[in-house]
Amino acid sequence: MKLMTHNMLTSKGMKNVKEGFPLKIQAEEMRNVDIDYDRDFITRMIPKLDWKALVFAAQCVGHKEDLPDTLPEGYENDNELLKRLHHVLLEVEVVSGCLECPETQRKFPISNGIPNMLLNEDEV
Amino acid sequence: MTALSPLRQPAKRYLLWCANEHIEFRIPEINAISSMFNIPLMWIDKPKEDPYLIVEMRNEGDARRLMSRCMLVRSCFELWGQGNTEEELHSSIKLFPLDMMKPHLAPEKTFRVRVESFNKTLKNAEKLKKIESLSYLPFEGKVDLKHASTCLHLLEYYGLHPNETHRGPYKLFLGRWVVDGQRELISKFSLKSRTYIGSTSMDAQLSFIMANFAQVQPGSTIVDPFVGTGSVLVAAAQFGGHAWGWDIDYLTLHARTKPTRHSQKERTAGESILSNFEQYGLKHKYLDVVVMDNARPFWRDVPYVDAIITDPPYGIREAMERVGTVKGPKTAEDTIKQQSSSHHFPSKMNYNLSDVYCDLINFAARHLVVGGRLVFWLPVFREDYDENHIPSHPCLRIVFNCEQVLTVHASRRLITLVKTRHPQEGEVGKCQVTDLNAKFRDKFFQAASLTKEERASLKSMFPRDKRGQGLAYRLGESKNKTKVLKMEAASECSSGNVNEGRNLEKSTLRDEQINQNN
Fold it and tell me: Could you read off the pLDDT of A28-41 as tens digits, one per residue?
C-alpha cells in the first residue's frame, strides 16, 4: 500500500464512525520501489491530498524528515519538494501490517501490500 | 481538396478504413478521441455498416493524433479520389489538386501502389491492370515495393454480403496511406499471453475502447471499483492513466483463485494484478488495489478521480456480493471467533443488481472531478430495453450508449456518463437494471419450456466449460455473431462448475443461491 492510497482511505464506512481519518499505520514489513517521476501526475494530485494526514502517515512509517509540516506556497515550482513528495507518496510501500481506525481502534489488515477494508457482518 | 470546407479553413479529406467489428462503437470512439485532443473534425460520409468513414481534418498532424489512439480504424488515407465505378473514380482523382499530389510523387520520393479489395479476392493480373489504369498520375520517383515513402492504395469495396460481389465494386477509393490505427495493441495485450487472468477479464480491444471513451490521458487518475484481475486498468495505464482498483473478492485480488486457463493447475507466485502491469512496463502507473465493498466504500469524500472505467457484475455469471448477513446478528462469541481468524471472509448476502449500479453511480457523482467520466457495461434483456432504465444521476449526463449483442435475448451496453457538477446534499442516483439472472431463473428449472434460443442464451450466461472461457473473453475475441451461437450450442456436453475467479466456495454457493432466489 502506498502512502498516496492511505491518504484517501477512511473508516467512515463503519457505523458509529464520524470521520475515521486519518487511519493509523502500523507497519510490519515495508519496502521501497522505483517509480518513474511523473511531475504532472504529482502536481495534479497535491490539491486533492490531505497534507496533515500525509505528514502523519509519513511519521508512522519513519519518513517524516522528508516533508515540511505544511504545504508551502509555490510548491509547483519547487522541484526538490516535488521529487521528495513523489518518493514518499509512491515509492514507500507497506507490504504488511494494518490500518487502525482512530475512533474505534478497529484494525484493517494489509497483506501482500493490499489493504483489506471489508467489515464483519455486525459492523455494517 | 483545398477548397474551403465546413471547417472554414483549407481542410483535407481522409478515408478511415475500419475494422469490421464493434460497429456501433466506431463513430463514438472517433468522437471521444477527437474531442479529447481538440481535433476539429467534419463528417463527410458515415455509413451505418460499411467499414469505412470519410472525414475532413485540418492537416495530417490531426489525423496522426486521432489515429494514435484509435482501435477500430485500421488505416487512415489521404483521400485522392472516390467513385461508385472505375470511371467515377478516375474522374474524381483527376479533380484532386496536382500540387497536393506532386510532393509525394516527386523524383526524390519512392512510391508503391497497392490494390486491395474488401469481400472479394482479385487475381494478380486484375490488380496489375488496375495499377496501370493509374498511369496518368504524375509519378516522378522510383518504385520501391518494400520501403516506399509514398504508398497509394486503390481500395475496392464489394459490400458486406458475399452474394453480391459479381455486380462489381460498390465503392472505389484511391488514397495515400498516412498512418495505421492502434490495432497492433490488440495482439500485444491479448489475454492469451497475459500473466494473470480470470474468467471475467475484459478482452484487450474492448478495454482500450473503454479507455478511449473515458478519455484517459497521461497524468489522469483512473479507478475500477470492480477490478477483478485488472484487465480494464491495464489498458488505461497503457494510455497514461495512474490506476487504483478495488474489489470485494479477496481471493481474486491476491491471485489465489483457481486458474481459468485450461492447461494451468495452480496459480504461480508471480501472478497478481501488479504482475499484469509489470508485463507491459506499466508498473509506474499502478497505484494500489484494495479489498473493499462498494456498498460501504471507505474513500475520503473528495472528487479525485478523472475516470471510472469498469465492468460490474451482470448478476449472471457471478453472484453479486456485499458484506452482511441474511440471518440475525451474530453473538459476541461468534464475532470474536471470526475476527481472530486472520483470513476471515465475511459472509456475503445477495446484492441486488440495481443497488450495484446505484452505488456505482453515486460513487461517480461524488468522486469524479467535474468533466470526469464513468464508463461501464450494463447488461440488457433486449426485449425489455428502455433508455430510461439506464442508471442516472442529476449530476451525470449520457455521452455514449453502445450495444454489443451477445445473444438473441441479451446484450450489454457500454455506457459513458460525464459529470457536469457536484452533487448537492441528498442528491442520489436511480436505476432500474434488469437482473438477467432473475429474468431467466424461473425458466431455468423448467428446461422443457425453453426454446432453442433461450437455451443458447442461458449457456452463454452460465458458462460451463472447464476452460473457464468467460463471457467477455470468448465473445470479445470472436468476430462473428453466428459463431457465438454455434459455440454455445457446442458446449452442450461440458460439465463442471466454472470458478469465476472469486471465492472458492462460491461455485457451490451460487447453485444454492439460484435455488434460494426461487
Answer: 999 999 999 999 99
Contact assignment for A13 to B300 by CB distance below 8 Å = no
B288 touches chain A (CB under 8 A): yes
Mark out the alpha helices in B193-287 (DSSP H runs).
204-213, 231-238, 250-253, 273-279
Local confidence band at A121 (pLDDT 50, 70, 90 cut-offs): confident
A-interface mutation test, from B273, B274, B287, B336, most A Cβ less than 10 A away: B287
pLDDT of the residue at B516:
39
Average pLDDT over residues A44-55: 95
Side-by-side strand order, sheet with B410-419: B286-291, B242-247, B221-224, B305-310, B368-381, B410-419, B396-405
Of A95-104, B149-158, B426-435, which range is least confident?
B426-435
Buried-exposed string B359-377: b where 16+ CB fall within 10 A, e elsewhere: bbbbbbbbbbbeebbbbbb
Q: Residue A121 and residue B283: Cβ atoms within 8 Å?
A: no
Q: Compute the nearest-CA separation of B141 from chain A (Å).
A: 45
Instruction: Report the gap between the CA of B115 and the closest CA in chain A (Å).
Output: 45
CB B252 within 8 A of CB B228: yes
Do A10 and B299 lie within an 8 Å CB cutoff? yes
Residues contacting B412, CB < 8 A, separation 6+: B314, B377, B378, B379, B380, B403, B404, B406
* B7 or B516, greater pLDDT: B7
Give CA separation, B303 vs B127, B227, B290, B349, B490, in Å: 58, 20, 18, 30, 48
Residue range B424-465, pLDDT digits in tens: 988 888 877 777 666 665 544 444 455 666 666 655 554 443
